[in-house]
Design a protein that fits this description.
Shape: globular
CATH architecture: 3 Solenoid
Helix content: 10-25%
Number of domains: 1
Number of strands: 24
CATH class: Mainly Beta
CATH topology: UDP N-Acetylglucosamine Acyltransferase, domain 1
Structural class: mainly beta
Low-confidence stretches: 203-212
Order of helices and strands: HEEEEEEEEEEEEEEEEEEEEEEEEH
Strand order of the largest sheet: 1-4-7-10-15-18-21
Largest sheet: 7 strands, parallel
Length: 212
């Protein structure tokens, strides 16, 4: 009996995957050749503003959304773009409101969270959840790896071939070939053709800090 259940579930997972040929795939602005969004999916809406490049695999229970809820007109342009040959780990959430651009060959661990919108707390008398949030574009360079549980906040620009450590909370601009880790995330290693992979020179950082 158990064997039959597992076989049936494999059939269900295959039939339930969202691909370019599936009816659900037609709702996206573009699904490239070989794209597969695993079954069961997470919350998916705003498909007309989502592009996914060729041969990208989206894990099970991954949420992909544009806007706060289904229905609003978000304009003519793509809001969420995931490049080709990417792999997005299970349980991850990618929530776009203005612009999230993920390059080619980007891999993530499970439960990664990426968003271009954040709550504000400007008015101390209004509940934070009722204050109008702010958007700031996010860009993740091609060839990067995001470890399990990483959080990518609005306004982040990751260069090419970057590594984000598991559990890191990332905001800001990071150059190509960086390893970033921590809360908040900082560059802990960088690659240059002259020196290879090295930790940043903390003495230079300290010298550049203003006196108080």
């Amino acid at each position: 009996m158990g064997v039959l259940i597992h076989r049936a579930y494999r059939v269900i997972r295959h039939a339930g995957a969202i691909t370019p040929a599936a009816p659900a795939g037609h709702r996206f602005r573009r699904l490239g050749d070989g794209v597969s969004i695993a079954f069961p999916p997470g919350a998916i809406f705003g498909e007309r503003w989502i592009e996914i490049g060729d041969h990208t695999l989206i894990g099970e229970r991954v949420s992909l959304s544009c806007g706060m809820m289904p229905g609003p007109d978000l304009g003519p342009d793509t809001i969420l773009r995931i490049g080709g040959n990417c792999s997005i780990g299970r349980g991850s959430h990618i929530v776009a409101h203005q612009s999230i651009d993920i390059g080619d060959d980007v891999f993530t661990g499970p439960y990664v969270y990426i968003t271009d919108q954040n709550h504000v707390y400007d008015d101390p008398d209004i509940p934070i959840g009722r204050q109008w949030p702010r958007n700031s574009p996010v860009s993740i360079g091609s060839g990067s790896w995001l470890g399990a549980g990483a959080i990518i906040l609005p306004g982040t620009t990751l260069g090419r071939q970057c590594v984000v450590a598991g559990g890191a909370v990332v905001r800001g601009e990071f150059p190509d070939h960086s390893v970033v880790a921590g809360v908040p995330a900082k560059v802990v290693r960088r690659y240059t053709p002259e020196s290879g992979w090295k930790a940043p020179d903390l003495s230079l950082v300290l010298e550049s800090e203003p006196e108080v």
